[in-house]
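Please review the protein record below. Let me know how this chain folds according to its tokens.
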Amino acid sequence: MKILYKLIFIIIILNLQSCSKGKEKVTKITTPSQELELTKTYKEALEALNTNDPYYAAKKFLESELTYPQSLWAGKSALMASYSYYLQENFVDARFHLERYLRTYPNDKNKAYAHYLIAMTHYETIVDEKTDLKPLINAKSKFNEIIKNYPNTEFAIDAKYKINYINEVLAAKEMYLGRYYLKKQKWIPAINRFKNILREYETSIYTQEALHRLVEINYRIGLIDESKKYAILLGYNYASSKWYKETYLIYNKDYAKPAIKKEKNGIIKKFKDLF
């Protein structure tokens, strides 16, 4: 577990063990034995978590919540049960219990952490640019919600870093598909993928190659002025890059010009509308 997550976990533990000062209606604990039973169950769960037994911890935290569902301990227990499932890498159950926690305890002071943990359950399932994009999209959406709704928290700071990484993977996906279409000489789909990198992920590491590929394709299909436009952009912003050197050599290559089907509105007009 990364240092940041450990620090966040410590903060949450400290907060969860403090007494809530809200005005929520709670189940009264009328006897010392009831108080002792609830405290014992919660502490047993916490000990299990601290000794790397998140499976047993999740069970005991849920037991603590369900014993007195309207007590001051209920929300704390529900959140810690969710975290225990997260540690098991059981992201489906973690997300289920986190969403249940937010519905059941909407005024709990630790709800920012719950939203962050939901985002992480999506983020942890990201593999690479060749796989399903759904975890990327879901994680990015949740991180953006955190930045918007909890801007002054440590969760928002980390969310920004996570979104930067997600954007790199999404840009990589566009580049992967663009290269595929380029190899198959499917010029229009390739152009659309490379242009999407410039529109949506202009700060990514793939921007330079995207500009080069647009120079290359436009040159191949005979749109020399369009090709030069991207070459100028590449040279102005990345004059020392290897992609600019590759671009410089393009005009000395003898590319075959394949036949191109005319689009309804014309290829040149379609491209110029984007810039």
